[in-house]
Design goal:
The complex is a heterodimer. Chain A is mainly alpha-helical. Chain A has 28 helices and four strands. Chain A has a four-stranded mixed β-sheet with strand order 2-1-3-4. The chains are: A mainly alpha, B alpha/beta.
Chain lengths: 699, 284
């Protein structure tokens, strides 16, 4: 098959540009050539050093306690055992304060020889980690308690060895006692157990290799392909060569094909070079292979693996190209690399799933199916129809991803480097484009603050985490995007009838949200301890009721509304239709409540508050509703009356009341501007026009 | 007229803006350009010059209307259109890692120049644009004047009948700008149909056979310089331009007043449509 001239030209250009960039070649090819063997070498060296040190180690043991003479004789039994090497490893030392010596590493193990009575006392106090189960009481058994310090290597390793030796000694003494008492057969002949592995050596090694081969290969390919893929489209945009290329007669398909082939070639070449390099290092004996990974693959198997992996190479290259096509700059493309890495490497881990075979749903997952297929091929259990389907599924995935790249080259916003229509106009419009990004960043900051602020006092913590943070954020947004505060925060006067709806709606909403929470409990049961913790979080003790109401109701009622029903709703108002808008705003509000079990409940309240704001065109009803909701929850919590919320009759009534409340608010509506809610007959009243200035003049 | 290498009919581009709704970046533009003619698009920044030329070069899709290059419609046959076209703008760059010779070969190839004749064509271009001295040095090592010559050579690498120069002199020093204008003038002698956009009056005066005055996305006049002088009674192009642009603004104001009762009226104090920035090139 001969490729069209433009495809070959693009392919050649990409390879030439890559090879002439010394930094890329150095980082993608030369450095890994040394780095990977070096890592292996260093790993082996560290392992050897550790083993050496362990061998040379002498553990210092101190013996104390009522029965220390007997204990010492036991230790002597270990130390003076038949094994000459062991004899050297433990040395009895005298110390004044064994506890202190353990702490200061002057001692490795402290053996306490306890009397039976002392031991019983410790058991009774629960001071014992290994409880010996009840049996006929045998007064007078010697007890050895080994104290060690797990942070000190010598102490940790030494206690393992000593404990093992002591148990062996115990076994041999027991055997001797039994023999003396006339036990009829030698101990080791009581039962004989033998295990034999029927898997061939190839299968064992193949299984080991197969689990990680795809992962390693993909890793190497991404390492090799990322530099060229970032350069190829994102780099062209940044350099200004993309317009030149796109005004040439080459079709988008030809351009993308040429670039895709170049990425594939480079990724494959670099992966092969690294494997060859590793093989060379191993073959020359410069580096020891990790245990169990000495595998010989026949040329036939290697060829089979190569064919099997081709769609994986194409898909990897395609995903890399697509991420580059969607980036406006080099930097943005680099930013995409981490998610791309996760996206590609996670399916490659499929062979680690226990009992996985190609005759399962995994067959439909591109990459994962090939990864499992390679594992089966290596263990000699290939299932040919499965392999063929896996190959085709991944190939279709690669084709689809490539098609998305071709589409991206038709996207005017992407190819002309114009990040958005909004940037074209700047200011308030830009906020509509950026609002989700800002909230994502805000969420991250919020979660950091919530869990890291060194504030012990509950009151201060609430004031900072709820009061200050949610007050500062809308303020920063309004300043940054030069928004009109009246518009952005919906500071308009609602019609009086709305308040009736709010009075009915707030309690009904609380009960309804709680019902949702209980319904969720059927799906995902919430642990009871968690519920108790939650209860404490809502009503911290020792704070007067009026303060609680202000802290947990009024403050969040105002500040959270300014953030969510204020700037968030304002920013998203043109992006979604009203129903979706209420759901999205509610859900985002839910996600800002970090206890995961509270999210559905909070989101439900959030949706209600959004609907109120959309209907009334004003933030004030939402503020009052939110405050009432929280105050009620706090009150019920402090009076221990949550059980009120647990009757299904209450739930049903609440839902009806909620519907009624929304109905009332709808009748007295002054719809939020720009979302496309029908204005209703009452809108013609002149008082409404003054309450809600048209968006144009407000700017 | 229908056999003109370049022809547009009601060519329009609407950008959507969230708060102001639709913005007509290019509004029903009718143009044509003959062989051996330089048609100048004269307008302020943001008048719609670049958008028009990008639609002709198939980078942007027209919202409505048509444009034909050598009889091929831009939406129906974009690849055929691009094969007949050389596109040059101040923001289009060269590949830094390859040489001028490789650059010319690459663009001849991707533009479908007959494979057997590519090498001969490359030599011819190196000769004609006198880039032989540095034809095998990497582009990243060249001076801006050298790069400019290579850029023009790659624009005509496949010998296209239509050439588009979008504000080509905007980032050039005086000498390079003079050289470029001379080259463009030579290309006219070769019989190319050339579209040339600029906001520099003197450049339009010197170079263009006909001048299209474009303002707020609309063509206000297309005439030879003499024709424009006759029509307005003014001598200097600058005065002529202000004359047309001013008239247009008055019209627009009148229209706005008439329609301000409608829902889509511009609010008082809002910036006029033309104040927005033109979409900038991808070089940033």
């Amino acid at each position: 098959m001969k490729l069209p001239v433009p495809v070959r030209a693009v392919f050649g250009l990409e390879l030439r540009s890559l090879l002439r960039d010394p930094r890329t070649v150095l980082i993608s090819v030369v450095l890994p050539l040394f780095l990977i063997p070096f890592l292996l070498l260093a790993g082996n060296w560290v392992e050897d050093r550790r083993a050496d040190r362990e061998d040379a180690r002498v553990y210092r043991v101190a013996v104390t306690g009522a029965d220390s003479a007997f204990a010492a004789s036991l230790i002597e039994g270990v130390v003076g055992g038949t094994n000459g090497a062991e004899r050297e490893r433990f040395r009895l030392v005298e110390v004044d304060d064994p506890q202190r010596a353990l702490q200061t590493e002057a001692l490795d193990i402290h053996v306490e020889a306890l009397s039976w009575m002392e031991w019983r006392a410790l058991v009774a106090e629960g001071e014992v980690t290994r409880r010996d189960r009840a049996g006929p009481e045998f007064d007078g058994a010697p007890v050895l308690r080994l104290r060690f310090h797990s942070s000190h290597t010598g102490s940790r390793d030494g206690v393992e060895v000593l404990r093992e030796r002591l148990l062996e000694l115990r076994a041999s003494r027991r055997d001797a006692l039994l023999s003396e008492a006339g036990f009829p057969v030698p101990m080791e002949q009581v039962a004989i157990v033998d295990a034999r592995n029927v898997a061939s050596q190839e299968q064992i090694q193949g299984a080991r290799l197969g689990r990680f081969l795809t992962l390693v290969l993909l890793g190497l390919m991404i390492l090799g392909g990322s530099a060229i893929s970032i350069d190829t489209l994102a780099g062209e945009k940044e350099r200004g060569t993309l317009t030149t290329l796109l005004t040439s007669a080459a079709s988008r398909t030809e351009i993308v094909t040429g670039k895709l082939l170049a990425i594939m070639a480079v990724a494959l070449a670099i992966a092969l070079v690294q494997i060859l390099n590793l093989w060379l290092f191993l073959g020359l004996g410069l580096v020891e292979p990790m245990a169990g990974f000495a595998v010989s693959i026949s040329p036939g198997l290697a060829a089979g693996l190569f064919v099997l992996y081709l769609p994986a190479v194409a898909l990897t290259a395609g995903v890399l190209l697509l991420s580059s096509a969607h980036a406006h700059s080099y930097k943005e493309a680099q930013f995409y690399l981490t998610p791309v890495l996760a996206l590609l490497l996670v399916p490659a881990l499929a062979p680690l799933l226990p009992g996985i075979t190609l005759q399962s749903a995994i067959l439909a997952v591109p990459l994962a199916n090939l990864s499992v297929g390679a594992h089966e091929l290596l263990t000699g259990q290939a299932y040919l129809p499965g392999l063929i389907v896996a190959w085709l599924v991944t190939a279709v995935g690669a084709a689809w991803v490539t098609d998305r790249s071709i589409h991206a080259l038709h996207d005017e916003g992407l190819i002309t480097g114009d990040t958005s229509r909004a940037e074209f106009f700047g200011g308030p419009e830009l906020f509509q484009k950026r609002v989700l990004r800002w909230f994502a960043a805000f969420w991250a900051v919020k979660i950091l603050l919530e869990f890291n602020l060194p504030i012990d006092d509950v009151r201060t913590a609430v004031l900072v985490n709820v009061g200050l943070v949610f007050l500062v954020f809308p303020f920063v947004v309004i300043r940054h995007f030069r928004l009109d505060p009246v518009e952005a925060l919906a500071l308009r006067v609602p019609r009086p009838g709305v308040w009736l709806g709010v009075l009915i709606g707030a309690p009904a909403g609380l009960v309804t949200a709680n019902t949702i929470f209980r319904l969720m409990d059927f799906v995902v049961p919430v642990p009871t301890e968690l519920l108790e913790n939650l209860g404490q979080a809502v009503t911290p003790e020792g704070i007067p009721m009026w303060q609680l109401v202000i802290l947990l109701s009024v403050v969040p009622g105002i500040t959270e509304e300014l953030t969510f029903r204020g700037v968030l709703l304002h920013g998203l108002r043109k992006r979604f239709r009203p129903v979706a808008l209420a759901l999205v705003v509610g859900l985002i509000f839910g996600f800002f409540h970090f206890q995961i079990f509270r999210i559905p409940q909070s989101a439900a309240i959030g949706v209600m508050l959004t609907v109120v704001t959309l209907y009334s065109g004003s933030i004030f009803p939402a503020i009052v509703w939110h405050t009432l909701n929280n105050a009620l929850a706090v009150y019920l919590g402090s009076e221990g009356m949550e059980s009120v919320l647990e009757s299904w009759w209450w739930s049903a009534g609440a839902v009806l009341a909620l519907v009624l409340a929304f109905r009332i608010i709808w009748v007295f509506r002054t719809p939020y501007p720009d979302v496309g809610l029908s204005p209703g007959p009452a809108r013609a009243e002149p008082s409404d026009v003054t309450a809600r200035p048209p968006s144009g003049t407000a700017r | 007229m229908s056999d003109s290498p370049v022809r547009t009919e009601g060519l329009s581009k609407v950008f959507y803006d969230a708060s102001r709704g639709e913005v007509n970046a290019v509004d029903a533009v009718d143009l044509d350009c003959s062989r051996g003619e330089i048609l100048g698009l004269l307008g302020a920044n943001g008048a719609g010059k670049t958008t028009t030329l990008r639609m002709l070069s198939t980078i942007l899709r027209p919202t409505s209307g048509h444009a034909w290059l050598m009889g091929h419609e831009v939406r129906a046959q974009p690849e055929r259109v691009r094969a007949e076209l050389g596109f040059y703008s101040a923001s289009t760059a060269l590949y830094p890692k390859i040489t001028p010779r490789e650059t010319l070969r690459f663009f001849a190839q991707v533009n479908g120049y007959p494979p057997k004749s590519v090498e001969a064509r490359v030599e011819e271009l190196i000769d004609r644009f006198r880039i032989g001295d540095y034809a095998d040095a990497r582009v990243e090592k060249l001076s801006s004047g050298m790069k400019q010559k290579v850029s023009i050579a790659r624009t005509v690498a496949h010998d296209p009948p239509v050439l588009i120069f979008d504000e080509p002199t905007v980032a050039l020093d005086v000498l390079n700008a003079i050289e470029l204008r001379k080259i463009i003038s030579d290309l006219r002698s070769d019989g190319k149909a050339i579209l040339f956009s600029t906001h520099v009056m003197s450049e339009a005066e010197q170079l263009c056979d006909r001048i299209a005055i474009i303002h707020h996305g609309r063509i206000l006049a297309v005439e030879t310089l003499d024709g424009l002088r006759e029509a307005t009674g003014l001598h200097y192009l600058e005065d002529i331009f202000v004359h047309y642009a001013g008239v247009k603004d008055a019209d627009a104001a009148a229209e706005a007043n008439i329609s301000s009762e409608g829902a889509g009226a511009s609010p008082p104090g809002a910036a006029p449509r033309g104040d927005r920035k033109e979409r900038e090139g991808s070089s940033k």
